[in-house]
Specification:
Order of helices and strands: EEEHEHEHHHEHEHEEHEHEEHEH
Number of helices: 11
CATH superfamily of the largest domain: P-loop containing nucleotide triphosphate hydrolases
CATH architecture of the largest domain: 3-Layer(aba) Sandwich
Strand order of the largest sheet: 5-6-7-3-8-9
Mean pLDDT: 90
Largest sheet: 6 strands, mixed
Structural class: alpha/beta
Helix content: 25-40%
Shape: elongated
Strand content: 25-35%
Low-confidence stretches: none
Number of domains: 2
Length: 306
């Protein structure tokens, strides 16, 4: 599969602060790369380096097989970008804002404008002035501007910020459709549950370091699913449950963890009750992306995600 983006040992410093540290990353064609990190972890800086909005101090960065040479300016024309707060002319309409962008790109015809407005759910408000737009509508217009040049690689920093639930679903479906058509997408979001639904691959950045990269299937394998049991005698309960149901039961601090979630909880309760062991609590735990992220950040020495 074609590699769209390859980064090797990339470093970036602002003043005396190193904000990116030995970044290694690879994104394949057609994937949706969910980029996760706290505010200030380095997400936007790395995206700006990829787009050419910030310089690289050291390391290698390749786009579509082209490295940091004069030619990379040409291949960057194949990127669509929404980073931080896009510049919009509030006194103009959505259509006029896109027309300014279209002329600047000098790549597509005017007929492309209603296509991208419709694609992001703004087909009926193209003649409305930006000053009357909600935050969510501005986010959609920013995405339309990024799609104007029919990009092969789309970089989106918090594209669903400010959207209502219906808008989030519409943008999700748009992103999925783009990926299915062959567009490669790098997306960051603080709404981790939404990224979990979207992304085919994930990268977690903490304190300027890419601390974890994994596919969606690898994430599912690493996210823990278990039955948590709290009793009046964990040692005895662990021994009894192991004998009754086999391995996969371990004693941790003030609880038991049973990894075989297929065992009915009523069978566990009956087994313990018949042995005279009191049950303080029992529940099934399904770890999601947010919990996984918090654990990874904690292991990397960062603060808990908020």
């Amino acid at each position: 599969m074609e590699t769209i983006l390859k980064i090797s040992n990339l470093n970036k410093t602002y003043g005396t602060q190193q904000v990116l540290k030995e970044i290694n990353m690879e994104i394949k064609k057609g994937s949706i790369y969910g980029f996760i990190g706290r505010n200030g972890a380095g997400k936007s800086t790395l995206m700006r380096c990829i787009c050419g909005l910030a310089s690289v101090d050291s390391g290698a960065l390749e786009l579509f097989g082209t490295g940091l040479t004069a030619d990379i300016c040409d291949v960057r024309k194949r990127i669509g970008v929404v980073i931080e707060h896009p510049t919009l002319h509030k006194s103009l309409t959505a259509f006029d804002n896109l027309e300014i962008q279209r002329r600047f790109l000098n790549k597509v015809g005017k007929e492309r404008i209603p296509v991208v407005l419709e694609k992001v759910g703004l087909g009926d408000v193209g003649k409305k002035k930006i000053s009357a737009f909600s935050l969510g509508m501005k986010q959609r217009l920013a995405l339309a501007m990024a799609l104007l040049n029919e990009p092969d690689f789309l970089i989106l920093d918090e594209p669903i910020n400010g959207l209502d639930p219906m808008g989030v679903v519409e943008i999700r479906n748009t992103i999925k459709a783009l990926a299915e058509s062959g567009v490669t997408i790098m997306i960051s979001s603080h709404i981790l549950a939404e990224l979990h639904l979207l992304a085919t691959d994930f990268g977690i950045i903490e304190n300027g370091r890419l601390v974890k990269q994994l596919t969606a299937s690898e994430l599912e394998a690493e996210c823990q699913h278990y039955i948590e049991i709290k009793t009046t005698d964990d040692a005895k309960a662990c021994e009894l449950l192991t004998a009754q149901f086999g391995g996969g039961v371990k004693q941790e601090k003030e609880r038991l963890v049973m990894t075989d979630v297929s065992i009915p909880t009523e069978d566990i309760i009956l087994t313990l009750s018949q042995a005279g062991i009191g049950i303080k609590g029992i529940n099934t735990v399904d770890q999601d992306l947010e919990s996984y992220f918090m654990n990874i950040v904690s292991e990397a020495g960062g603060k808990q995600y908020v």
